[in-house]
Design a protein that fits this description.
By secondary structure, the protein is an alpha+beta fold. 48% of the residues lie in helices and 19% in strands.
Length: 106
């Protein structure tokens, strides 16, 4: 009786469970990790391609044109003529692309 209970308890992690854990890990990678890595790569590429005169929106919501670019920072000129220095990581990719996309009137 005791041997039967021990055999049933010891065989709890079978091949089916290992396959299920493997499938969960694959699904997690393709739906969570891979898209996040692609988004980070696109953000870095966009920031590296910024140049003087480009219109940007920061993550804080500040709109302006790039006035000067340094190694890790850039200077934004706002509408009122004020200038603010930001870190390059403060640029919002989605908001900046939306700002620079031409509006089609119907």
């Amino acid at each position: 009786m005791t041997a039967t209970i021990l055999l049933q308890a010891g065989g709890g992690l079978g091949y089916q469970q290992l396959i299920m854990f493997g499938l969960i890990a694959v699904v997690f990678y393709f739906f969570m990790i891979r898209p996040q890595m692609k988004k980070q790569k696109d953000q870095k590429k966009y920031v590296d391609e910024l140049k003087k005169g480009d219109k940007v929106v920061t993550t804080a919501g500040i709109h302006g044109k790039i006035y000067e670019i340094a190694d890790t920072t850039f200077l934004i000129e706002t509408e009122g003529g004020g200038r603010i220095r930001f870190d390059k990581s403060a640029v919002s990719l989605e908001a900046s692309k939306a700002l620079n996309t031409p509006v089609v009137n119907k």
